[in-house]
Each structure stands twice: as C-alpha cells, then as structure tokens.
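Dear U.,

For the methods section draft, I wanted the exact inputs and outputs in one place so we can describe them consistently. I've listed the two proteins in the order they'll appear in the manuscript figures. Please don't edit the token lines directly; just add comments below if something needs changing.

First protein:
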Amino acid sequence: MKSDLTNQSRRAFVKQTSLLAGGLVAAPLLSNAGYFNSVDDTIKVALIGCGGRGTGAAMQALLTKQNVKLVAMADAFRDRLDECYNNLMQDDLSDWSGAGGNVKAKVAVTEETKFVGFDGYLKAIPLADVIILTTPPGFRPIHFEEAIKQGKHVFMEKPVATDPAGVQKVLAAAEEAKKKKLNVVVGLQRHYQNSYRELYKRVKDGMIGDITSGQVWWNNDGVWVKMREPGQTEMEYQMRNWYYFNWLCGDHINEQHIHNIDVMNWFKGGYPVKAQGMGGRQARTGKEFGEIYDHHYVEFEYADGSIMNSQCRHIKGTYAKVDEMLVGTKGVVKCGAAEISYKGKSLYKFDRSKENNPYQSEHDELFAALAKGEYKFADAENGAKATMTAIMGRMATYSGQVVEWDKAINSGINIMPAKFAWDAETPTKPDANGFYPIAMPGVTKYFS
C-alpha cells in the first residue's frame, strides 16, 4: 500500500535519479552462518502487505544482484494480492524501477503460497528467510514480533506503530533481533541516500558546530481516498480507507512526516524530551477523511534545549514543501538542496551526479549482507523511536498540552482493535450521519 510517496511520485523520483545503487555480487551463503533454512544459496522472501508500497518493495528486493526468490505473499484482501502478483509478473518494470526488464523468473509464488486474511502472515512467515512488512503500520508491531520470533530477517516500512504500546512491542522485538543477529532494515530511506549520508558525515565532523534548531516540513495536497462501498462492514471500510484512521495509520504526521522528523533526530543524535503544538481539520472535513487532522505544527524540544519546528499539511492548493533544514552555531544544512552554508557562503555542495535511488539501495545493501552471512543492520530501535516522536507530536496537537517523552512512551496507550475479523468492532465508529469523533485540543486528554 502507498506510504510516503504515491506510485507516480516514486516513479518520478526513480527516473530522476536514473540509476540503481550497485548491489554486491552474490557470494555463496555460509552454511555455518545459521542465517537461512535454504539448502542452496537462494534467499527466500515473503511479502506481507501487497499494496503499492509492498509491490515496490518486492520488486526492489528481486532487482538486487543476489539469488532472491519471492516464495509467499499475504494480504487481508485477495484483490490486492492479485494486483500485486500481476504487477510483479509484468514484462517491463520501467515505470516501477527505472531499470526496465522484469523479475518474473524470481517469483516462485504458487496458489498454495498466497495467503488471504488477517492471519495470512502466520502462514507466510515460516516459508521464507526474509520478511517484507508493508501493511498499514498499525499491524507492524505484531507482524515484526512474529517474524523475529521465527528467526527471520526483516525489511519493514515506516512508521512501525501507531500507538505507544505498539512502539514498546517493536522495541522489545528489536532487542530480540539483536540477540539473534537478525538484520532489520526500516524504510526511512534517507539513511540510505547518498546526499543525506554525505551531509551527515560533515555534520558529525563538526562543520556546522552544535545544532541549535531545525525546521522540517511535509506539506502537500495529500493522498488517495477510498469511498465507502455498499455491503462493506465497518472493519473492511476502515481497512480499505486506512490512511484516515489512527489505529491503522497514526495520522499523516506519523505516516509521512516521520521522514523529516527522523532526519532531525538522526543528525541531532537523540530524540526529543517533550512536545507541544497545534493542529486541526480546516479543509478536509468530510466523513471520508475519517478522524485525522489536515494540518499539524509541533515544537519538539531536546534535552539540551534545542528545538525542532515541525509542520505538515494535507490541503490542496497550498504551498508544498517536503524538506529539512538544520541550523548550527557554524553553519546551516539545507537537505533538499544538499548544501551546507554559513552566512551566505557555501561550505559544501553534494555532487548530484553521485545521487542514488535510496529505495533500491536499502534492499541492495540488505541482501548483499545476507548473501555474505553478515549481520549489519539494526534499524528497528531507531524506527520505533522515530515513530514515537511522531506519535508524541500527534498527542500534542490533539490535546493542546505539553507531552513528555517518558510519560508518553510508558503510558501503555493502545488504540488497536480487541480482535481482527471482518465483523469485529473498530476502535472508532461513525455516528448516525457517518462522521467520526475528532480530537479536540483542550478537551482531548491523555494524562490527568
């Protein structure tokens, strides 16, 4: 399913970068590494979540240089699974990969290894060495926990939860993954983008001095809407229109703006200790927009007193900006421009000819490490804490109160359904007119 970029914008990004990061030539798997169940050098992959992002992630895994086979697929909906499978079997993947060619020979999924329903992941995970988790993020904690329990390596999309209880579940599983030396990559792909990596190196080397503040933005028109169809249960409707329900998505501050928030945390080398802000539903007021806000502004404060000013907006016809800027005592980083400057003088400018496609690179690097029997990636803890930062921001805008990190992450707040079934009750329900309850600053409370 689509997440941080629409398919159209993802494809445009890939074409703009016009290259795939080179994966390392496959080496024989080490039979004593304990990494795979395979008897040969095949790395078996299962895809959990077969929407647009899942399709893209599966293609990127199969486009790596290693001997990778997709052996199982799972999704709550059969039509989504079928659409994904058919896309993977296309003769030309240029629109998806920018590289042309196809991956059909690497798709080893049969009717017996296509699993539909809420429990499909339990049947797919045992069949593979690597699990790709790309369902709506509300399911990520339980899917990640199960994959690690079964000793599997994981690529999972961001965000990794929608509530503090889910974040804690991911953190616990992350510790188990480290103990088992299981590689985990999280789709905060700026960590795998050459320009960001080069900027980060220079910040860590002291080029801009101490970071005192940052500005991060994800402002644009918004994403798709799925209208209610006759005969749908409330659970099915919310699952189809998942972006607009917090138990599934976490609001767009969590689902998209997490990328920009994560950059500030990454360069800063820590996570905020508290947050306060404002937000609401000014333009997207229809029932089809569920319960989420259309704009958020959050002031995050770090332990040293430095501030991250965060804004995200989904309103058509408004100024669009997706970027990050970090201000230090000796310079300013403009991430979108890939430049560091001080008082109008350029200190460093990244060579755009050396840019890569980070969506592909995160898979290239993961599967190259797996083929060599290496333990290199432990992204889950940062993924969980980046997610918690965004959730803390949502709690601040929804309540209008100052929200402290320690209190929020240890609150045990759980917004997930009691059970997963098509006739099960959803955490939020529409009124007689089809409208959902909306958080109201000054009224909505998380803590006494």
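Second protein (the one for the lower panel):
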Amino acid sequence: MEKELKLLLLEDNTGDAFLFKFYLGESTNPVFNVSHAETLKGALDLLAQEKFDIVVSDMNLPDSTGVDTIKTILQKYPGNMLIVLTGLTDEDVGLETVRYGAQDFLVKGKFDGKVLISSIMFAFERFKLNNQLVEENTRLDALQQLLGVAYFEVNLDNDVMYLSNFALLYSSALISANETSVAERMANFEHTEELLAAFSKAKSETVSGESYIVRKADNRKFKVIYQSSANKFYGVFKDAEYPTQ
C-alpha cells in the first residue's frame, strides 16, 4: 500500500524549488504531496491552515534570513518536523539549526533524488521515534507520580546512573543532569554501604532487595527497591523513614 506524506517546501529560488519537487516526484512509496511557499509569511499561513508531516525550509528568504527563519517556524509550530536547506557556505549554520530543533539539514548541490528521499525518510523515522520516546517518558512520569515512586537505572558496564524526569523532580536532585556516575550521585547520601554493595554484587550475579539512604543536605530519607538483570541495575525509590535499630 502506498504511503502519502504531506510536505511543505519553503524555498524562494524557482530553480531550486523545481529541482526539489522533481526529485520528490520520483518517489512512489512514499508519495510526497508537496505544497510550496516562497516566503516565511506564506509558510506560516499554510501551517496555520493544515497539518504537514514534514517541513523543508531554506534559511534565506525575502522576509527572513538565517537561523531566525528556523527559530520562527519552530517557535510558532513546535510540533512540526523541520529539515533545513543550506548553501555550501552555510554548513556550520545548518548544524546550528539542529541545535535549535531542526531534525536535519541538507546542503544544496550535494544530493540527487535518491539521496534526498532517503535523507528525508531517515529523518522522518527518527523524528517519529523521538516522539514515541517522549510519549513513553510522559506516561512513565505520570505513573510514577500516581504511585509515589521514582525510577532509576544503572548501566553496570560504565557505572552511569540514569534518573527519570520525575525522579529528578521528586527527589529535588542535587545533581541536575539525569545521567551521572553512581559515585557522584551517591556522594550526596549517607548509609549507602548496603546499596553500593548491591551495585558491586550485581556485576557478577543477579540481585534484588531493598535498602535505605539519607540525603546529607536535608536529612531526607528514601527507601530504595532494586533488582538487576544482565548489565542493568534498576529500581525505584520513595520517601521513607529510616528504620531504627
């Protein structure tokens, strides 16, 4: 079954626009339904009227130039997948647009029809995967909030600890990044001996259990429930009173 993708092309150069549409016309699966705008205002008007699967935009237009073109599109319509077209002298600028949220950039004159289509589809599939991951993380955070627990995971090959977004918020983490070493994370806590021993043991055998740790800064107490599998050590933590002996 043929797949159709709606694509908005933002390009004021008639020759470049013709060549781009000609290349896309060679594709039969997917079939590209191309709309064309020559100005930023025209593109924004089209984006206000309908939903596009892909937006491909030149940076230098009659009414907008440089990175500001890309910023404007992504600020007004952040949910769109955007690929940037650049000239040979703008490759560094094209890379900068990726940092602002563009999915990829293509250098004019450096692609034929086959390369163009494969580049667009690769970026499109990556964009969909990223959106799926965001949705899954959102659901995970909502579930953690409902249950009052926060998820963590440790890669036992490199001792890097990952905290979910909710875990960072829930624990008011002293280290803001959601990935850091076990040693750095645990340096902020007391009574970590049992948990660190479990980390070490998990590198050679399967472990599971629970432990308690106390954050040094404010004496906040957490119960940690954990288990291991393959090269991962993972679990949840939640507020708990440290048990008295």
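Candidate sentences for the figure legend, describing the second protein: The chain has two domains: 4-138, 148-239. The helical segments are 14-25, 40-49, 67-76, 91-99, 113-147, 165-171, 182-186, 193-202.

Thanks,
Y.
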